[in-house]
Amino acid sequence: MKLNTVIYKYLFKEMLAPFFINVIFFAFVFLLTRILDITNMIVNYKIAVSDVLLIILYSMPHFLIFVIPISVMMTTLLTFLRLSGDNEIIALKAGGVSLYELLPPVFMFCLVGCLLTAGMTVYGSPRGTTALKELTVEVAASNVNIGLKERTFNDYFKDVMIYVNKINAKDKSLTDVFIEDQRNKNLVITIVSPRGELFNEPDKPVFHLRLFNGTVSQVDLENRSVNSIHFETYEVSLDLAGTLSTTKVRKKNRKEMNLDELRQYIKEDTKKDAQYYVILLEWHKRFSIPFACFALGLLAVPLGVRSKSVRRSFGLGLGLAFFLFYYLLLSAGMVFGEAGVYPPLVGMWVPNIVTGGMGLYFLVRTANDRPIWINFFPNLIITRLKSLVTR
């Protein structure tokens, strides 16, 4: 067996275990952003644990789109940090193995990450987003106040818009309620009430909103007349059956579209309006993020080798900083791409080009044993601290 083959297998195996650990860790970090919502659903709304687990499952593809690339980067960084710290890089160089010859297993590993991320962007995320919306509607059919949000104009029900200033999840009481009912085409009903209660009929997708001491204004569009009355108790019926059927036949948004639907929209759109750029941006995003695995993985190699001279924690922090830099470039590309400031192609692929270019530059200098600037800042900080201590 050739020496290079042995080294390739060794490096690839070294990256497998850290990769799975990184995926689990960063997926957990992303889930922490929703832990308050999940806890709220279980404690206050008594949602079944099985439904909560399904919500997490359907949300995971969206998280994994970013979790996999950062896991690829941090795994590569950790592997080369260890190799450099144990002087294995020096031993390989002494044996005639250059840094460039260590790249094939890294690129193979990045290819695996790229394919996994592409599976999430092309298949997992669109299907997960669709399934999550359908599940949310079904869960709301059994507990409608989940769908109502405080200080938000809720258009959850067909032709009915509801605004609630405060919601008490325990007793389902509502404070400062505003409703606009347009279910009758020729009659617009506006209801304002300081207090209300929400309750449902058993085994039926019908909810009732009971309001107290409020005002009803009826605008007759056909006769151009307005009637206003004060009430002590007023009840509004909300039927979820129409909402459920509407959800199944509604028009998909960009995150739910598959590649064929995105391609068809781009091909048939002739207006080139804001929505066109949003869809085109989504098309390029589906492919650019998977290829970020190559750019971030390439950048991680010189960072891992050169971070030997500083503390390992600094090397890990540096890796996270570069990923944040990539994410900021991607976010800026999405904002300016949607606004039409520059083509979506530029906005989605420039982050990969910039990050990959930096990685290539650092790699060449590291392979030629030339210093790169990453050591400058920690050395400067250490020098400053020493000077302060000696004073």
TrEMBL record:
InterPro entries registered for this protein in UniProt: LptF (IPR030922), LptG/LptF_permease (IPR005495)
Membrane topology according to the record: Multi-pass membrane protein
Main location: membrane
Database matches in Pfam families: LptF_LptG
A cellular component annotation (GO) from this entry: ATP-binding cassette (ABC) transporter complex
Transmembrane stretches, start-end: 12-32, 52-81, 102-123, 317-336, 342-364
Keywords in alphabetical order: Cell membrane, Membrane, Transmembrane, Transmembrane helix
Source organism, top-level taxon: Bacteria
GO terms of biological process kind: lipopolysaccharide transport; transmembrane transport
Name of the protein: Permease YjgP/YjgQ family protein
Higher taxonomy: Bacteria, Pseudomonadati, Thermodesulfobacteriota, Desulfobacteria, Desulfobacterales
NCBIfam families per UniProt: LptF_YjgP
Presence of the UniProt keyword Transmembrane in the record: yes
Compartmental location: Cell membrane
